[in-house]
Design a protein that fits this description.
Strand content: 15-25%
Number of strands: 26
Largest sheet: 7 strands, mixed
Number of helices: 24
C-alpha cells in the first residue's frame, strides 16, 4: 500500500526534546507514513542528534537542515508541503510528542476529499476537543475556535498547506494565520474525528509578553474572521476568546508599566470593537423595589424600550413584579448561569446597586465577577448620622471577594473621599425621578409647611419638631404639617403630640402617620422641610420637585447641595436650627414661592429616568471598552469613621493594604493616616458640630 500521510517536523534548538520525539517517530509504519523534518538552523547541537539517530537512515525519513534561520515555522511547513508526496500531512513541533499507534490508526481512517481533519489532542494530560460538532456543518460556533487555533491534532490537505503556508509575519499566532488562510481560500472541507489523541503537548507555548501582539496583524486577523463569520453564519465567539486571552497576556506581562499596560489594552480594544449589548442590574429585592431609588418602577418600564438590553437579577421579587420582562431569577440557577455564560465582558457590564451580590449562589457570583462590575453607590459613604462601630470593627468595611472596575456615586463628597484615598476610577451620576407632565402647585391652595420625619424618629428629632412648631407659632406662620411614612413610628407620634400639647403648640402642628400614598405629603404643601439629619436627601428632594414643591434642607445632609440651588428652587441652610428655619420661611413672599415652584419643577426634568439610563449605558460602555480583564477596586460596603477616628483610633488600612497589594494603589500607611485625618476626620467633626447646633 502507498503512503497516505506525511508527518512534518519543524525544529529549532530542541536538543533536549528531539531524541524522544524521533524515538516515537521510529515506531511509525514505514509503508504508510513518511516523515519530513525541517531544522531552522539550530545552533545547540540539534542537527547532530538528528543525524546520529537510527531514524535518519530510514527510507521513510528525510531531513533538511537549513543554512539560515528564518525565525518562524512557516518556511519549514511550506518546504515540507512542497516536498511531500502524500495527499495528507500533519505537523508536529520539535518539543511535542506523538503516540505512534494512535497516529497510525488515524492515518488508516483517512479518506479523500477533505482539507482539514480535526482530532483531539492532549495538553498536560488533559484531552482537548470540541464539546459538540456536526459533520454536516463542521464549521460552526462550537468548533471555530478550535479549528482556527493551533496545529495539534490537525491533518491537512497537502495542496492547501503548499499554497498558503508562507507567512511573512513573525511572532504570535502563526498557526492561527495558517488555518485562516486555508479556510479563506476555500479549502473548507472539514472533517471532525473523535478518535484517540495522537498529539501530546507538555506545556502551552502561548507568549506571555505583549510585545508579540502586533496591532496590524491583530487587525488583519479580526478582519479575516469577519469574512469567515459572514460566510459560515458564525457569532463573535472566537473574537471574544481572543479578546480575553490577549487582555490576560497584557495584565500578566511583568515587563509593562501601568501606563504601557493601559495603552496595550486600548490597542486591543481598538482592533476588536464589540457592540455593547447588556446592562445587568443586581439588587436585593424587586417586589419591594428596594434599590434605594423611588423611580425604580418607571426605570424598569423605560428600560424595556432601550436599544441596550437591561436585565434585572434580584434575590427576591422578580416573579411578582409585572414590569420586569428581562429578569433572571437566582432560584433558576441553571438558567442564570447559562445567560451569564453568553455574556462577554466587552458586551456586558454588571451594575451592583447594593450588597446583594454576595448573597447569590457561588456559581452566579463567579460568573458575575468575570464581567466588568460598576458599583452604584446611592447611600453616602459617610453617614450624616453617626453609626458607632463595634469596638474591634474596621473603619472601612469592604464586601469580601467582590471588586469593581468603576465606582459611581450620587453625591460629590463621596467621589472626593475616594480620590483622597487614591481611588480615581469613580464619578457621579444624577439620580432618577419619575418626570411629571404638569405642575399642580398653586400658592393659593398649597398653604402648609410639610415636614417628613426620618425613618427612625429619634428623640432628638422630637425635640427639634417641638421647638420648630413653637417658633413657627410665635412668628404666626402656617401650621407645621408633620408626616411619618413608617407605620412603626406610632409611639413616636404619640410622644410628639403629647410634647406639643405640653408646650401649647399642638394647634400649630398637624401630625399624620401611616400614609397610604406619598403624594399626600405634597398635595397641599407650600414647601417641604427636611430633617436636619439623615443618610440621604436626594430622593426626597427630587420627589418634592416633581410635584413642583420647593425644599428647605441642611446643606450638610448628603444629596441636598447636589440638587437644590439655594434661592432658585429651594433653600440650603448651613445652620439648621428651628430658629434659622423659621426665620428663612418668614421672609418668603407668595411670588417667591411661585417662582421657586416653577424652577424646581423645571429642575426635576434634568433628573429624568431617560437621562439616568443614558448615563448608565454611557458609563457601562466606557467601562467595557477599557476593561483590563479583571475587576480590582474594592467595593466599600460602609465607612464607620465618625466614632472610629475620634474614639477607637481606627483607620481604613486593611482594605487599603489589600488594594496596595494589587499594585493599583501605592500609599504608605503613614501617608494614608494623614490623608484620612485631614480629609475625613475634620469634615466629620464639622458636620457633627452643625448637627449639634441643629438639635439645640
Amino acid at each position: 500500500m502507498n503512503p497516505c500521510l506525511t508527518v512534518g517536523v519543524t525544529t529549532h534548538n530542541e536538543r533536549d526534546n528531539i531524541t524522544v520525539l524521533l524515538d516515537r517517530l521510529l515506531r511509525l509504519p514505514k509503508g504508510r507514513i513518511l516523515i519530513l523534518l525541517y531544522d531552522d538552523r539550530s545552533d545547540d547541537g540539534t542537527a547532530a542528534l538528528i543525524a546520529k539517530h537510527p531514524l535518519f537512515g530510514q527510507e521513510n525519513f528525510q531531513a533538511h537542515l537549513a543554512d539560515v534561520n528564518f525565525g518562524s515555522p512557516s518556511i519549514g511547513r511550506r518546504y515540507i508541503a512542497e516536498h511531500a508526496t502524500t495527499p495528507y500531512l500533519t505537523f508536529v513541533d520539535g518539543d511535542d510528542l506523538i503516540d505512534p499507534d494512535a497516529l497510525a490508526a488515524a492515518a488508516e481512517r483517512l479518506r479523500p476529499g477533505f482539507d482539514i481533519v480535526m482530532t483531539p489532542f492532549v495538553l498536560r494530560n488533559k484531552i482537548n476537543f470540541v464539546k459538540e460538532f456536526d459533520n454536516d456543518r463542521p464549521i460552526s460556533n462550537s468548533t471555530i475556535s478550535r479549528l482556527l487555533s493551533g496545529i495539534a491534532g490537525k491533518i491537512y490537505n497537502r495542496e492547501a498547506v503548499f499554497l498558503h503556508a508562507k507567512d511573512e509575519i513573525k511572532g504570535r499566532s502563526e498557526d492561527v494565520r495558517l488555518n485562516m488562510r486555508i479556510l479563506l481560500a476555500g479549502f473548507d472541507r472539514v472533517r471532525i474525528e473523535k478518535i484517540k489523541p495522537f498529539y501530546f503537548i507538555e506545556t502551552s507555548r502561548k507568549s506571555t509578553y505583549s510585545k508579540n501582539i502586533l496591532p496590524k496583524e491583530l487587525s488583519a486577523r479580526v478582519s479575516n474572521y469577519k469574512v469567515l463569520k459572514d460566510r459560515y453564519g458564525l457569532d463573535d465567539i472566537y473574537l471574544k476568546t481572543l479578546h480575553r486571552n490577549l487582555l490576560e497576556v497584557v495584565q500578566r506581562d511583568p515587563t509593562l508599566t501601568e501606563s504601557e499596560r493601559k495603552m496595550q489594552r486600548r490597542t486591543i480594544h481598538a482592533a476588536m470593537t464589540f457592540q455593547f449589548r447588556h446592562v445587568i442590574h443586581v439588587m436585593r429585592d424587586l417586589s419591594g423595589l428596594g434599590t434605594r431609588m423611588r423611580a425604580t418602577p418607571a426605570m424598569i418600564q423605560a428600560a424595556d424600550h432601550r436599544e441596550i438590553r437591561h436585565t434585572w437579577m434580584a434575590l427576591q421579587g422578580s416573579e411578582t413584579h409585572p414590569a420586569v420582562k428581562n429578569a433572571q431569577r437566582p432560584s433558576d440557577e441553571q438558567a442564570s448561569c447559562s445567560f451569564l455564560d453568553q455574556c462577554h465582558f466587552a458586551e456586558a457590564v454588571v451594575i451592583v446597586h447594593d450588597d446583594s451580590i454576595k448573597h447569590f449562589p457561588i456559581s452566579i457570583q463567579s460568573r458575575l465577577s468575570r464581567l466588568p462590575v460598576v458599583q452604584m453607590r446611592w447611600l453616602p459613604l459617610m453617614s450624616a448620622r453617626p453609626k458607632a462601630p463595634a469596638h474591634d470593627a474596621p473603619a472601612w468595611e469592604t464586601m469580601e471577594s467582590c471588586t469593581a472596575s468603576r465606582i459611581v456615586c450620587a453625591n460629590g463628597p463621596d467621589v472626593a473621599l475616594y480620590k483622597q484615598c487614591g481611588i480615581n476610577e469613580s464619578g457621579t451620576i444624577k439620580r432618577p425621578v419619575q418626570v411629571r407632565s404638569s405642575n399642580s402647585y398653586d400658592v393659593r391652595e398649597n398653604k402648609r409647611f410639610s415636614y417628613v420625619m426620618s425613618s427612625d424618629g429619634r428623640p432628638e428629632e422630637v425635640n427639634f419638631l417641638v421647638e420648630l412648631a413653637r417658633v413657627m407659632k410665635d412668628r404666626e406662620l402656617a401650621p407645621l404639617h408633620i408626616f411619618a411614612v413608617n407605620p412603626e413610628q406610632a409611639p413616636v407620634l404619640e410622644e410628639l403630640a403629647a410634647r406639643l400639647m405640653h408646650v401649647g403648640a399642638l394647634e400649630a402642628a398637624i401630625v399624620e402617620g401611616g400614609l397610604a400614598s406619598r403624594s399626600a405629603i405634597h398635595d397641599q404643601a407650600r414647601i417641604v422641610i427636611l430633617p436636619p439629619w439623615g443618610n440621604d436627601a436626594g430622593d426626597s428632594i427630587l420627589e418634592s420637585f416633581s410635584f413642583g414643591v420647593p425644599v428647605i434642607a441642611p446643606g450638610y445632609v448628603p444629596g441636598a447641595a447636589e440638587i437644590i440651588r439655594d434661592g432658585e428652587d429651594g433653600f440650603i441652610l448651613d445652620e439648621f436650627s428651628p430658629q434659622d428655619v423659621a426665620a428663612r420661611l418668614a421672609h418668603v413672599s407668595l411670588e417667591n414661592y411661585a417662582a421657586l415652584s416653577a424652577n424646581c419643577f423645571a429642575r426635576h426634568k434634568e433628573f429624568s429616568v431617560e437621562q439616568y439610563l443614558t448615563s448608565i449605558e454611557t458609563i457601562a460602555s466606557d467601562v467595557a471598552r477599557d476593561f483590563p480583564g479583571e475587576n480590582s477596586l474594592p467595593i466599600v460596603d460602609s465607612l464607620h469613621v465618625w466614632d472610629a477616628l475620634e474614639t477607637h483610633g481606627a483607620f481604613p488600612l486593611p482594605a487599603i493594604r489589600s488594594y496596595a497589594r494589587r499594585r493599583v494603589f501605592r500609599l504608605r500607611g503613614k501617608a494614608v493616616r494623614v490623608l484620612v485625618l485631614l480629609r475625613v476626620a475634620e469634615p466629620l467633626r464639622w458636620i457633627k458640630k452643625r448637627m449639634t447646633s441643629a438639635r439645640g
